[in-house]
Each structure stands twice: as structure tokens, then as C-alpha cells.
Amino acid sequence: HNSTHSLAPQKTESKPVDYEQVYKDIADILEDNDYDDGSFGPVLVRLAWHASGTYDKDSKTGGSNAASMRFAPESEHGANAGLKVARDLLEPIKAKYPGISYGDLWTLAGVVAIQELGGPTIAWRPGRTDGVSAQSCTPDGRLPDAGKKEDHIRDIFYRMGFNDQEIVALTGAHALGRCHTDRSGFDGPWSEQPTIFSNEYFKVIAGRKWVKKDLPNGGWQWVDKNSDTTIMMLPAEISMYNDKAFRPYFDLYAKDNDRFFEDFSKAFGTLMELGVPFKGDEKVYRFKTTNA
Ligand code: ZEM
To answer: Which CATH superfamily is domain 150-266 in?
Structure first.
């Protein structure tokens, strides 16, 4: 026998991952009446998006491949505040399926959350390989700053390779979830039913009169002039809505939920794959939504 054998790094022989079963296991842990509006879905979507949205098409760095948000400093970037909740939530799933990479797990969790909360089917495939150290971290500042204007939002998303239509479609994910004062400093949800994925975001932004509201932390956001709900919009979003080139897509998606679902599904599928060196032979999954 080869005497160096025992000194070689142990290759972990893990059995092939049953991604259909992983989907179901994630679907099972979404609901929690003690958390936010009753679902971990929105924060999982935000995790998947922040893992992917660091991509830079010119340097081909960032994106979901390495799951570099596991490491400081990326885990500590201001944009990622609060996402430990989502990462920790998925640890028991990772423990149950050691063969799945964090990048695959996080992006799959985003897909599960969107589908289970009523959104479109999103094509997904495995193939991400975990980074092993902070060297895989991306520089701070690659994710959008909600306090800035539409030109900043364009710069950020063009850097990932998206066009205006895709940017607006992707922002429709804000039908889900809410802002937290202890995470972003903003406060409140974008829709009345923040655990249901639909084109509601576009109806809300078009259908209300927005006024500025100062926040205790020195910032400000938009709130509905004629109602005492906590519905809000970020400074960047009203700037986008008032932009001539973005507006037609806001109008389109407010009127046409099917078109929104179709365009969102494509753009989100693309987002999840940014920076991933697929071999090309990975199976593409279109998961069946559970009836839970
Ligand atoms: Zn968001 N997002 N986002 N976003 N996002 C927040 C929350 C959520 C922007 C942004 O600054 C913020 C996309 C695009 C953009 C989600 C998904 C997607 C919050 C609140 C802010 C401030 C964080 C907090 O306090 O918890 C900006 C400026 C964007 C560009 C226009 C895209 C693209 C997304 C997915 C496709 C989701 C689901 C949430 C809700 C998270 C939660 O915990 O409820």
C-alpha cells in the first residue's frame, strides 16, 4: 500500500444530495408565527439576493459561488445587517445534507421562499463551491444603497449585467418582507401582505401619494400620505419610479401579474447564477411547490 495515503487530506465521501428533499425541508421551516409577519421567507430571499448581487461582470468576481458572506468582513458589511438570522436558520439543513454547498443552499432557499409564498417557479441548478476563507469576500459597497438615487441603482445593477427592465422586475421582490430599524434603519413593509409574492409592490407604488417622513436615526423614507398604515418606500425606489426609462416597467408590472412573474422568474434565475462556473452538465430543477 501507498504509505503516504493516510497523510493525504481526507476526501469526504458524501452521498449525492437529494435537492427535491432539501426544497421540502426548507419549505417546512418557513412559517413561524413569532417572527416578523409569520415567515422567514422574505429574509431568505434577501440572503440569496445579497449572496448573488455582489457580482461584477468585468472582473468576474463576487456572486453566489463562494458563499463569501460566511466570513468577516463581508458578514459585517452594513448591507448584510440582519442576515445572520437567515444563515443560522439554514444551519440545521446544512447539517442534515453535508454534501450541499452553502452557495447552493442559500440560493435554493431563495427559490423555495419565492415559490412557497406564491411566486413563480424559478429554474435552479446546483454547482456552487464554497470559498474557504475571507479571501473570497467581496469589497463593501457592491449592493445598492437605499438612500441614493436611480443613477446609483443603475450603476449597481448594470455592473451585475442587468438592464432596466430586469432591474424593475427584480425590485418587485419587495412585495415580500419589511425594513427593520435595527438592520437598515428604515421601517415597515412595502405591501399589506408581506408574506405573499405578487405584483402588489407595483400597485402600491403607483396607487398611493407618497410623502417624506423623517426617521429618528436622522434618515428619511416615503410613507403613504392618506393612510396610517406603516407601508413605506425607500428613497431610491421613488427615484426609480420617477425615472422615464424605468417607469414603463413599473406600469407594465402593475397591470400584468403574469408578465411580472415571467420576467421576475428569468431575472431572479439569472441573479442566482451570477459568478458560478457551471460545468454545463448540472441538472436544472423546476421544483414543485408544496401544498403546505
Ligand atoms: Zn431589497 N431591501 N433592495 N431587494 N429586500 C430590503 C429588504 C428586502 C434594496 C434595499 O436597500 C433594501 C432587492 C433590491 C433592493 C429584498 C429583496 C430584494 C431592505 C430592508 C432594504 C433597505 C432591510 C431590513 O431592514 O431588514 C434596494 C435599494 C434595492 C434596489 C433597488 C432585490 C433585487 C431583491 C430580491 C430579488 C427582500 C425580500 C427584503 C425583505 C427582507 C426581510 O427581512 O423582510
So the answer is: Peroxidase, domain 2 (1.10.420.10)
